[in-house]
Amino acid sequence: MTPVEPRPDLADLERPALESALEARGHKRFHARQIVRWIYRRGVTDIEAMTDLSRELRATLASDFTLTTPVLAQREISVDGTEKFLLRLADGRHIESVFIPDTPAMTFCISTQVGCAMACAFCLTGKMGLVRNLTAGEIVGQVRVLADALHMRDTAFNIVLMGMGEPLHNYDETMRALRILVDEHGFDMPARRITLSTVGLLPALERLAAEEVMPNLAISLHAPTDLQRGALVPINTKYGIAEIIQACKRFPLKRRSRITFEYVLLAGVNDSPQDARKLATLVAGVKSKVNLIPLNAAAGIPFERPSDEAIDRFAKIVADHGVIVSVRKSRGRDIRAACGQLIVEGPKKSAAQQLAVVM
Ligand code: SAH
């Protein structure tokens, strides 16, 4: 018996790949545009519903391809309007995506992995470990599901790859997802509306610098010295601060764009005036801005959020050094949708999740 080739999933294919796949099966390449329009513009999840394709074509497409869409399993809304979506994937695993309204733009916060291997000391997702990478179809699938659930297919929104996972640790699928998102016949997202946040995996960062589709870049710095950062972000022992800053200096930025340095503020750990001065000096040579993220505390996370005074003092010192600085407003903490609070494992709650009572 010859092994049966798995059918390609329409949701995983960039348009050029879809055109080739159609051609290889005896169909016309131009149907790719129609299919892409149906999936991303019209929100169709069933090949049968692509009614400008002939009945025969739809029937053969349905036997040649699949079209997989994450299933909305649960939806929670915060007092501040932030919404958290629990999505079930085809293999039964779950991921979370978050909608953050009016910041002032509408923002979708999207996952790139189930869990995460980076194990940052203050992040709940890191407690899950890496379960698996998402496919491009699953990454973009979150946008498809949220756009439908929120009736936002005709509304402009931003995308931040700041959900579960380290995007550069799932490089190829993340980049494929970006190319699908910017396709002019599909969502037609401007790349400047997409932000990729990374812990700074150097080789992948160098690769990203040469990509055609270039999102905004946010680097999770979190400490001004290797000693401090190494204790918070384990991968720092491999790719240290100086190398990351060098890579940022070389990064091909568009005219008006800047690299964002994210900095989680932890009481008594990295929030001293001296830390603020060191941080400002460190980023001074990079066209950048600093985004301070006061810790979103949770049971099981051995850190505390600094006082508002300490946060203001830190921000002021950084600003006084001529660095653009903002403090991220925490959104959706009551539904555990804020930064670093996304954690799921199967339909049954994990021990860590049961522990994860937001304080
Ligand atoms: N893996 C990517 C995306 C992480 S989520 C990265 O490391 O950049 C986006 C931001 O939230 C990161 O800067 C991350 O470090 C931060 N974060 C994680 N846990 C947090 C917590 N408990 N409180 C506040 N921010 C947190």
What does this molecule look like?
With 359 residues, this protein is of the alpha/beta class. Helices cover 32% and strands 17% of the residues. It contains twelve helices and twelve strands. It has helices at 15-24, 31-41, 55-64, 124-128, 136-149, 171-182, 202-208, 226-232, 241-250, 273-283, 308-320, 351-355; strands at residues 71-77, 83-88, 94-100, 107-109, 113-115, 130-133, 158-161, 194-198, 216-220, 259-265, 288-294, 324-327. The strands form two sheets. Strands 1-2-3-4-7-8-9-10-11-12 form a ten-stranded mixed beta sheet, covered by helices on one side. Strand 10, helix 10 (273-283) and strand 11 form a beta-alpha-beta unit. Helix 1 (15-24) crosses helix 2 (31-41), helix 5 packs across helix 6 (171-182) and helix 10 runs parallel beside helix 11. 44% of the residues are buried. Residues 346-359 have low confidence and may be disordered. The chain binds S-adenosyl-L-homocysteine. S-adenosyl-L-homocysteine binds at residues 120, 122-123, 162, 166, 197-199, 220, 262, 264, 293, 295-296, 301, 339-340.
Q: Give helix % range.
A: 25-40%
Gyration radius over CA: 21 Å
Q: How many angstroms separate the termini?
A: 58 Å
Q: State the strand order across the main sheet.
A: 1-2-3-4-7-8-9-10-11-12
Structural class: alpha/beta
Cα shape: elongated
Uncertain runs are 346-359
Count of beta strands: 12
Strand content: 15-25%
Write the layout of secondary structure elements.
Elements: H1 15-24, H2 31-41, H3 55-64, E1 71-77, E2 83-88, E3 94-100, E4 107-109, E5 113-115, H4 124-128, E6 130-133, H5 136-149, E7 158-161, H6 171-182, E8 194-198, H7 202-208, E9 216-220, H8 226-232, H9 241-250, E10 259-265, H10 273-283, E11 288-294, H11 308-320, E12 324-327, H12 351-355
Parallel strand pairs: 4-7, 7-8, 8-9, 9-10, 10-11, 11-12
Antiparallel strand pairs: 1-2, 2-3, 3-4, 5-6
Helix pairs in contact: 1-2, 5-6, 10-11
Bound molecules: S-adenosyl-L-homocysteine (SAH).
S-adenosyl-L-homocysteine is lined by residues 120, 122-123, 162, 166, 197-199, 220, 262, 264, 293, 295-296, 301, 339-340.
